[in-house]
Amino acid sequence: MSKVNDRHVALISAFFEALRRADVAAMERCYHPDVSFGDPVFQEVEGREKVMAMWRLKLGVRSGLQADYRDVRADDHTGTARWTARYTFSTTGRQVVSEVDALFRFEDDVIVRHHEEFDFRRWSKMALGRPHGLLFGWTPMWRKTIRDRAAQQLAEFRAALPSQG
């Protein structure tokens, strides 16, 4: 990373502070209209409206989300942060603690690309428990099942939102 860009460091921090408060309007202000998001579950979500619907869905299935971030770094083009997500996965009622590496790319002084990495197998064991998460969390077929289910949930969630036009 080249020279530190304090505005971009502040932008990443503002995003995580908004996430911590579940303030989706403030989160949205951090994103470019053409933002794309990806993580091990939601592999590729394109456009601010879809990305924000995904965050609303995620916040809805994560009861009591605590987002603790650290190690925020940014230059004129890219940024990184580490954060810990602590929540109850509403589908199973199980406690989850995920260590997440976040990568950002900036355009027009907002986030245009947001990518996150976490240990899918570890997440699966915590969120889904035994036997599914423990036995199958590492298999490509199980990952595809989780990803397909998440994509379907997002599509259904978006379809249920009030029309914005």
Automatic annotation (TrEMBL):
One Pfam family hit: SnoaL_2
Record's signal peptide: none
Limits of the SnoaL-like domain: 13-114
InterPro entries tied to this protein: NTF2-like_dom_sf, SnoaL-like
Transmembrane segments: none
Protein's name in the database: SnoaL-like domain-containing protein
Native source species: Nonomuraea pusilla
